[in-house]
Write a structure and sequence with these properties.
The protein is α/β, with parallel strands linked by helices. It has helices at residues 12-20, 28-38, 53-64, 81-98, 113-120, 131-139, 156-159, 165-174, 190-196, 230-241, 253-265, 279-291, 301-304, 324-331, 352-362, 379-393, and strands at residues 43-46, 74-77, 104-107, 126-129, 150-154, 180-185, 204-207, 218-224, 246-249, 271-273, 296-299, 314-317, 341-347, 366-372, 375-377. It has 2 domains: 5-207, P-loop containing nucleotide triphosphate hydrolases (Rossmann fold), CATH 3.40.50; 218-377, P-loop containing nucleotide triphosphate hydrolases (Rossmann fold), CATH 3.40.50. It is globular and about 65 Å long. Residues 233-377 form the Helicase C-terminal domain. Its EC number is 3.6.4.13.
Length: 396
């Protein structure tokens, strides 16, 4: 008999709210983490992308909020603006469906700080945001870290990398010593856990899958192309497949805008999310992609972290990720909640060896494919397919 949310100690109003969202049973990470968070342990939780890590900490945080007090009681740090806004929206849905008067605010960089200060005067219970802007507002005494009961590092591996660790550590140090710390991520490199131990207190470490496996409903293909020809192959793929909803991954942010422009030039409507894009354009792209109005979104790995949008059917890797763990994050965007998905990587001949490593690490098959007459075919079938086309055009 599966464990229920009620058995984990989740209050009835929250259970009913989850039911409204079609969530009836806890995932493995939720089952292990929720009781520990409710008991105020520090927790380090590792679980695959798309396994419900956000609710693993949000549910107990909701339950521990003193709703009669107007003060900041929980802080959730994220590595990207998009993830902060997504979590903030999830808090809003949970509050609305449960009827619990829990308030929240997204506090991120590259946004009018005066408006954020006005919002902070309302003393939202939960703050979600980027470490840089949060630290800035703490220094301005607009956020009081002394009232925080819980601090969450969502996508902890990114928050504790070289670029972010100093701001994150500075934020954590402004809180009281007994503030609960929760770290969640799909991957936990040794450097992440070592840095985290500097401010964790006897943490409960949860590794739901020590050997990380990729969702079996996702199939993996690759097509060999010269670097200069990759975009042309991508364009033909999109025309051939006409994906329901697709994410295209590009390693360099500056190449995202170029890729979007090329796709639009060829009549393929696409938008991009990247650091250089304006906040308004990023929000517009995300909203349209989430609603289904936009079918093609081009993104960097950083911008896509934590992206939880139902119905993503295809992942296109225009560039291979620099680290094999990032491949996990990328393909984890598709095939969620048991749905099928397909990941297609465009590679040069020299990059095929990298795919073999991915196959060994994750126990998957990445199948070679080719484009022939506007169709995706197996290499051994290409010659036959070509002959069949020729016979059709020139009947005897």
């Amino acid at each position: 008999m599966p464990t229920s949310f009620a058995q984990l100690g989740v209050e009835e109003k929250l259970v009913l709210a989850l039911n409204q969202q079609g969530i009836n049973e806890p995932t493995a990470i939720q089952e292990q983490a929720i009781p520990l968070v409710l008991e105020r342990h520090d927790v380090v939780g590792q679980s695959e992308t798309g396994t419900g890590k956000t609710l693993a900490y949000l549910l107990p945080i909701f339950q521990k909020i003193d709703r009669l007090k107007r003060e900041n009681q929980a802080l959730i740090l994220t590595p990207t603006h998009e993830l902060a806004l997504q979590i903030n929206a999830e808090i809003g849905i949970l509050a609305k469906n449960s009827g619990l008067p829990v308030t929240a605010a997204a506090i991120i960089g590259n946004v009018n700080i005066t408006r954020q200060i006005e919002k902070l005067k309302e003393k939202p219970h939960i703050l979600v945001g980027s470490s840089g802007r949060i630290l800035e507002l703490i220094k301005k005494r607009k956020i009081s870290a002394q009232s925080l009961k819980t601090i969450v590092l969502d996508e902890a591996d990114r928050l504790l990398d070289e670029d972010n660790v100093h701001d994150v550590a500075a934020v954590v140090k402004t809180a009281l010593r007994d503030t609960q710390l929760l770290l969640f991520s799909a991957t936990l490199p040794e450097t992440t856990t070592q840095r985290a131990m500097e401010f964790l207190k006897n943490p409960q470490v949860l590794r739901v899958t020590k050997t990380i496996k990729i969702n079996p409903t996702i199939s993996h293909d690759y097509i060999v192309a010269e670097q200069r020809d990759k975009f042309e192959v991508l364009r033909k793929l999109i025309r051939s497949i006409s994906p329901k909803r697709a994410l295209i991954f590009v390693n360099k942010s500056e190449e995202i805008e170029k890729t979007v422009e090329k796709l639009n030039y060829h009549g393929i409507e696409a938008e991009g999310i990247y650091g250089g894009a304006s906040k308004i354009n990023r929000h517009k792209a995300m909203d349209e992609f989430r609603s289904g109005k936009l079918r093609i979104l081009v993104a960097s790995d950083l911008a896509s972290r934590g992206l939880d949008i139902k119905g993503i059917s295809h992942i296109f890797n225009l560039d291979l990720p620099e680290d094999h763990q990032i491949y996990l994050h990328r393909v984890g965007r598709a095939g969620r909640a048991g749905e099928g998905g397909k990941a297609i990587s465009l590679v040069t001949k020299s990059e095929i060896s990298y795919l073999k490593k991915l196959e060994n690490v994750y126990g998957i098959n990445i199948n070679p494919k080719e484009m022939a007459f506007g169709k995706i075919v197996d290499p051994q079938k290409r010659q036959f397919y070509g002959r069949a086309k020729t016979r059709t055009k020139n009947p005897s």
